Amino acid sequence: MRFRAVVIGIGPREAEAVFRAQGLTVQIREFSPVTTVAVGLAKKRVLEMEEPPVRPVRLLMPFVLGLWAVEAILFFLAVASFLLGWTRSLFWLLVAASLSWGGLSFAMSLWYLRRVAREGDTSGSLSGLGDIVFGGAEAALVLVAILLAAALVWFVLFIVWLPLVLVVLAALTFGEAWRIYRCLWVVANDTDGLRRAGKGLLDLGAVVSRSWDTYLEEGDRGRAMSSRKAQYRANRTLAVVGVSSLGLMVALLSGKFLPEIGATTVFATTALLGLTSILFVDAVRRLRGLRSRS
Question: Which residues contact residue 253 at a Cβ distance below 8 angstroms, ignoring those fewer than 6 apart?
Fold first, then answer.
């Protein structure tokens, strides 16, 4: 029986030492904190899986989302050229570019979803793409605009902006924020010794996925659940820090064009950013406390 699990918060050398001490031969694949945050390997839907899928992550997923983000830009430029009365040649050029790029994005998305359905994956952000039924041309246009806008925002926030925010927070927390998002994908062919290995990982302050709970003793299972809850708290606050910091940047830019709106928005987003940054640092402190108590 092949055992698969996710381990967050420690490096491969530390994990290998634990497994080697228990005589276990395992395959370990390491993911950087940037990849962990961008793809969501530390999210609840991944860590609470009782049986993780065969493949840990499809690194093509950010690329597919990037295709849709470019399609969103082309689509809205075509709409703007029509509404603002730009030259007809530019309008039709943008329409042609939008349709061509949209066809490429759709084809890549179908290929990606078929791979996910066949092999399993943890990055199911596009899983509902093929289940949409349009109710008319106008409704279709509105829905397409909403979906493309959502794809653009999702790509900018989670694939581009949030990893940058993590780098900044890592510097402010002297590397602790970086360490809590180190991710290992572990595959073992033998389950003997997993109980002691799981305890060893917890003693190092690691966050282990739910798939490990079957092999842990009651006390260690409680420790694993507590560490996962602390990780989820850090994830939530990091997401809010990303949203508020991106909102602050948008507010600062919009303040040049709409001063009466910009001042209020800048104040509100700055306050939100400050509060959530404090909460994130506290979440990092709690995770570090689990490691210290171990």
Answer: none
Q: Cα–Cα distances in Å, from 209 out to 9, 186, 206? A: 12, 10, 10
Determine the length of the chain.
294
Cβ within 8 Å of residue 25, ≥6 positions away: 19, 188, 189, 190
Q: What is the pLDDT of residues 156-193, one digit of tens each?
A: 888 888 888 999 888 888 888 999 999 999 998 888 88
DSSP SS3 for 28: strand
Measured distance CA(46)–CA(133) in Å, rounded: 29
Inter-residue contact 9 to 184 (CB < 8 Å): no
CA-CA distance, 81 to 1, in Å (whole number)?
59
CA distance 92 to 82: 9
CATH number of the domain encompassing residue 24:
3.30.70.600
**For residue 29, what is the DSSP state?**
E
Q: Give the residue numbers spanning the domain of 114.
A: 58-180
**Same domain, yes or no, for 106 and 15?**
no
In angstroms, the CA 99 to CA 105 distance is 10
Q: What's the whole-model pTM score?
A: 0.74
